[in-house]
Amino acid sequence: MERLQPDLPRRNWRIAMKTLSLAAGLACVATLAAAETPVLTVMTYDSFASEWGPGPAIEQGFEATCACDLRFVTAGDGAALLARVQLEGAAGEGDVVVGLDTNLTAMAAASGLFAPHGQPAVTGLPVAYDDPLFLPFDWGYFAFVHAKDLPNPLKSFDELAASDLKIIIQDPRSSTPGLGLVMWVKAAYGDRAPEIWAGLKDNIVTVTPGWSEAYGMFLEGEADMVLSYTTSPAYHLIAENDASKTAALFDEGHYLQVEVAGKLAATDQPALADAFLAYLTSEAAQAVIPTTNWMYPANPLAAGLPQGFETLIQPGKSLLFPQDEAGALRDKAVEEWQSALAQ
């Protein structure tokens, strides 16, 4: 037996070498598998990719068709999202951007960072929209949400300014709903917009960076109304079985938000980006939108909208500046808001 002792180190060494070789081989296989699985990076806003948003279901559905890895990178609200895309430029990690809207598309197009999407026009919007760079995936109307038992429902910004009701709004410099609000006032009142903002100043409890903070404060009872969407009460009704919320229907009309997606020109996965955009407007993905993003789908659903959407207010007039006009008016509308609140 003692003659075997000198062989033990050699035998252990051979076993160790075989183990290391096997581990190296497995690591190599894993590396190759990872290298062979293409990654599509989608930049979007926080709530889209959240566990309660449409992102997880869309990710699962697309990955089942693409043999790829879809990864979300988030950047606050839509306005913050565009700012990040512009800051990163052509060296950014994104392939697709999801969550800009028509108030931002002129600025996004001027950046030169987007390529034509090549997809057919959607057919479910209340207005005609066909843009070679930006593909709509959902839409909705901005509105002030409040409890149904709020006395004397308001019918205009003039009535709101004359009331003692307290509202929470979002900052148009960082939030797409906030920007939508200043464009709504501008579209409805034109040159009277500064006057409207001066009247609303006393009604505003606070201005938040984004929608989530504002809506959370409203739900905690810190204001009578919050800037949101006509579809927001559907969330409470369908997800919470709570029919206590509604939205104020304004006689002057409601500003339309059309949310869009775009392919970044610097993507190293152009075919996957095209496939994702096609999937985003497909029946499978569009069916997810109403009860996760709580917006209307950009393409009509074969089964129609979920039960509960029929209870929502329906604006009699759609307000929307064309892309170029929105781009030209955007800074002025924000400045009028800022000047009025600073006085």
List the helices and strands and how they pair.
Elements: H1 7-36, E1 39-44, H2 46-49, H3 55-66, E2 69-74, H4 78-88, E3 96-101, H5 105-110, E4 114-115, E5 135-147, H6 157-162, E6 167-170, H7 176-189, H8 193-200, E7 204-208, H9 211-219, E8 225-229, H10 232-240, E9 245-247, E10 254-264, H11 270-280, H12 283-286, E11 296-297, E12 318-319, H13 323-342
Parallel strand pairs: 1-2, 1-3, 6-7, 6-8, 10-12
Antiparallel strand pairs: 3-10, 4-10, 5-8, 5-9, 5-10, 5-11
Helix pairs in contact: 7-13, 8-13
Walkthrough of the structure:
With 343 residues, the chain is of the alpha/beta class. It folds into three domains: 2-35; 36-139 and 257-311, Periplasmic binding protein-like II (D-Maltodextrin-Binding Protein, domain 2), CATH 3.40.190; 140-256 and 313-342, D-Maltodextrin-Binding Protein, domain 2 (3-Layer(aba) Sandwich), CATH 3.40.190. Helices cover 42% and strands 19% of the residues. It contains 13 helices and twelve strands. It has helices at 7-36, 46-49, 55-66, 78-88, 105-110, 157-162, 176-189, 193-200, 211-219, 232-240, 270-280, 283-286, 323-342, and strands spanning 39-44, 69-74, 96-101, 114-115, 135-147, 167-170, 204-208, 225-229, 245-247, 254-264, 296-297, 318-319. Strands 1, 2, 3, 4, 5, 6, 7, 8, 9, 10, 11 and 12 form a twelve-stranded mixed beta sheet that branches. Helix 7 (176-189) crosses helix 13 and helix 8 crosses helix 13. The longest helix has 30 residues, at 7-36. The protein starts with 6 loop residues before the first helix and ends with a helix. The relative contact order is 0.18. The model is unreliable at 1-22 and 25-34 (pLDDT under 50).
